[in-house]
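Sat 14:20. Reprocessing the chain from the morning session after the first attempt stalled halfway. Input below, unchanged.
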Amino acid sequence: MVYETGSGPVEALRDITLSVADGEFVSLVGPSGCGKSTMLRVLAGLRPATSGSIIVDGQPVTRPISKVGMVFQAAVLLKWRTVLENVLLPAELAGLNPRRYRDRANDLLKLVGLEGFATKRPGELSGGMQQRVALCRALLLDPPLLLMDEPFGALDAMTRDDMNLELLRVWGEAGEGGRKTVLFVTHSIPEAVFLSDRVVVMSPRPGRIADVVTVDLPRPRTVESRATAEFGALSLRIYDLLTGRRADAPGRPLQALS
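Finished this time. Tokens:
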């Protein structure tokens, strides 16, 4: 992926080759500006790749696709609409009758613990509750692919932990045809390890895949999972890949992958 700018071309992604299985949870970690968000937008068809090909469910991606739900760092809710109306927005934008999706919207709100908040406005909700609404909105049309771009990055630590657990529960329960396929962008190594089946470690721009780490921790994941030696070893391995140093060697300078 190459962007054209006034000062010349900027190469955002180079030589990316990645396959993600149905129902798999894969996280992308890497330094700021390495192209993680760009990769999600290319996968969704929101930006055309400069070269190469994108295949989703056996079909080449040449334009925005309908089989995807997206969740961003900010909830981006319409403040003049109720919670239920915000969740129903994808149906309206798709030219569908929102009334047909009211039951599903209410079921999703119940699933994420927001039963009874359907008539509230976004300004009446906490940040974590707003992100739950954004997740429901992304799931309304039951897309098989869910792309999440640092959705919990702006939340406090305890709320973020709660949302991690909530996401894993919804990932396992919300889909009618089984688990969603999830690509999740984060700067948090522990979050990536806790959520994922695999963690894709990216290099600085132009973004390339430095390594792919398999997370073989048992599911369902719990808070106690974070306290295991296996969790710590996986986190340290990813840290090593990102920084080029060991966490137990504080005297050495950080070295970015090149």
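The chain has two domains: 11-67+143-248, 78-142.
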